[in-house]
Amino acid sequence: MSAEKCFAKGSAAPGPVPNGHIRLYSMRFCPFAQRARLVLSAKGIKHDVVNINLKDKPEWFLEMNPLGLVPTMETLAGELIYESPIICDYLDEFYPEKKLLPSSPFGKAQQKMTLEHFSKIVPLFYKISMGKKSGDDVSVQEAELKNRLSKLNEDLVNKKTKFFGGDSITMIDYMMWPWFERLEIFQLKHCLDSTPDLKKWAELMLEDVAVKATMHSVDTHKAFGKTYAEGKPNFDYGL
What we know:
Blueprint: E1 3-7, E2 22-26, H1 31-43, E3 47-52, H2 59-64, E4 72-74, E5 80-82, H3 84-94, H4 105-134, H5 139-159, H6 171-181, H7 196-205, H8 209-214, H9 218-229
Parallel strand pairs: 1-3, 2-3
Antiparallel strand pairs: 2-4, 4-5
Helix pairs in contact: 1-3, 1-6, 4-5, 4-6
EC number: 1.20.4.2, 1.8.5.1, 2.5.1.18
InterPro entries: Glutathione-S-Trfase_C-like, Glutathione-S-Trfase_C_sf, Glutathione_S-Trfase, Glutathione_S-Trfase_N, GST_C, GST_omega, GST_Omega/HSP26, Omega/Tau-like
Function: Exhibits glutathione-dependent thiol transferase activity. Has high dehydroascorbate reductase activity and may contribute to the recycling of ascorbic acid. Participates in the biotransformation of inorganic arsenic and reduces monomethylarsonic acid (MMA).
């Protein structure tokens, strides 16, 4: 069961987590929540999704997680977990079938180091996109973004692999993907022109079953973004 339409202030809380499932509190257009949905899909974990209106959050959700963050995950035992990397690591450990993280401690450390590097890139996507919309000069930030993306490209070149953890998709690929899905929305797709291996990686990611199951079209992203920019985000857009 997935409650596609979002729950807002005044709404009744959903029932208990279905037996044999795990519940994800999400928002359909949130890239951080998409990380968790990618992992749930890739690992074939039975789950339901409850979408939250992030502008008008339900009282029961704020009691559950006073920070009001998505993704938040609730287990059958009522345990609550939030922050997307923590949720995804938990899912990989608790559901050991089709492991996404490397088995070696060094392999895990490598992925966490790559994720730490990528976490410095994420704010640039938003700064540049917002700056362009405001008519600001974002050339310095765009140069920094290209430099950081080139380092990711070098990582793939040095490893001589299709993906960041080898020749099949692993956790780190899913952790980074949501922002690459949105490159055209950020008006930054051209930043991959000088990073051919990274560009090829993005093309290969589009062929993945979990990516296909969780992504939105460019037009849908743009339409939601327009409602967000107008101050009236339509979290149910397209339903």
